[in-house]
Specification:
This is DUF4461 domain-containing protein. The chain has about 80 residues and is of the alpha/beta class. The chain contains three helices and four strands; from the N terminus they run αβααβββ. The chain is globular, with a radius of gyration of 12 Å.
Length: about 80
C-alpha cells in the first residue's frame, strides 16, 4: 500500500524498496497513481517484471545495470 505522502506501507517480508524506486522529480501523488496503475495490471505484467528493479520516472529507459525506467503515466 502507498500512503498519501507516497511512502510504501508493507510487511517487512516484502522488500519493495529494493525493487521499486522513484525519480526525485516524481511527486507522491504521481507515484500513487503509477502504483495504482501497476496494481490494476498486475496479472498481465507480473511475469515480465518479476525479479527486475523498476524506476518510476518521466521516460522509458533501461539502465546499464538492467533496471527498467517507466514513466509514471505509462501506457
Amino acid at each position: 500500500m502507498v500512503s498519501p505522502t507516497g511512502q510504501f506501507i508493507a510487511p517487512s517480508s516484502c522488500p519493495a524498496e529494493e525493487l521499486l524506486h522513484k525519480d526525485d522529480s516524481i511527486t507522491p501523488a504521481l507515484m500513487i497513481m503509477c502504483c495504482q496503475r501497476l496494481l490494476t495490471r498486475s496479472d498481465r505484467i507480473r511475469m515480465n517484471l518479476q525479479g527486475n528493479i523498476l524506476y518510476v520516472t518521466h521516460y522509458y529507459s533501461v539502465l546499464t545495470e538492467g533496471a527498467l525506467c517507466i514513466p509514471w503515466n505509462f501506457k
